[in-house]
Amino acid sequence: MNKPHKQTIFSASFLPDFLPGRLAVFLMGFFIGFVLIFSSDAFAESSDNQNSSVQVSDSYVRTVPPGQKNTGVFMTLTNVTDSTKSIVNAKSSAAEIVELHTHINEDGMMRMRQIEKIDIPAKGMTILKPGGLHVMLIGLKQEIVEGKPVGITLEYENGETQEIQAIGKKLQMKMPKMGMKH
Ligand SMILES: [Cu+2]
Fold first, then answer.
1. Count of CB atoms within 10 A of residue 173's CB?
2. Which residues partner with 75 through β-bridges?
3. What kind and span of H or E run contains 118?
4. Which residues are within 5 Å of ligand 1 (an ion), measured at CB?
5. Backbone phi and psi for residue 73, each to the nearest 5 degrees, phi listed first
6. I want to staple 19 with a disulfide (CB 3.0 to 4.6 A). Which of 12, 24, 56, 172 is the partner?
7. Ligand 1: centre distance to CA 126 (Å)
8. What does the pLDDT look like over 2-29, one tens digit per residue?
């Protein structure tokens, strides 16, 4: 008595509980696939944008004590193409001025110097790190908070731009000078 009655509910209802097994599994697979696509999109937005030419990973901004108005942004750039890619400019709403910098050793003193571009060799990698290449934020307009993202736009020589979210990170104030060779 009960069974035939239930079966009419099966075919009439779209509630997953009442779906025949195969269809339910299919729909669940579809749903999980959708969630994965959606969440990987969400991840890309809260992390570093991967354009087709250069992949940015491990991007971070050094946190600074209150009152300090300048800081550095660091990251790993991986060029997946067969030609050199160059970053020629960077922008951020977090600072008045954004420059591309490197460090040079001047009479034993490490000094920062502005550079025109940062090259990423074909099929190669360029690492922006403390004591080396970096994106300089000058005149901070907001506090850099540990664990919180700061939006940076990288501009390439070919006109492409790339949005990244660098995460606030506490670092040592100075690079240790031990082990530096002349
Ligand atoms: Cu600098």
1. 10
2. 128
3. strand 118-120
4. 101, 112, 136
5. -115, 135
6. 24
7. 17
8. 444 544 444 444 445 555 666 565 555 5
Q: Quickly list H helices, the chain.
A: 2-12, 21-46
The structure's pTM equals 0.68
Residue among 61, 88, 63 at smallest CA distance from 75? 61
CA 80 to the chain's CA centroid = 16
What SS3 class is residue 126?
strand
Tens digits of per-residue pLDDT, 95-109? 999 999 999 999 999
Look up residue 149 and give its two tokens. Answer: 């993202």
The β-bridge relationship of strands 161-169 and 54-62 is: parallel
DSSP H/E element including 152:
strand 149-156
Measured in angstroms, how far is the CA atom of residue 34 from the centroid of ligand 1?
43
Residues of the chain with pLDDT under 50: 1-4, 6-15, 34-47, 179
Q: How far apart are CA 154 and CA 117, in angstroms?
A: 11
- Whose tokens are 């001025």? That residue is 97
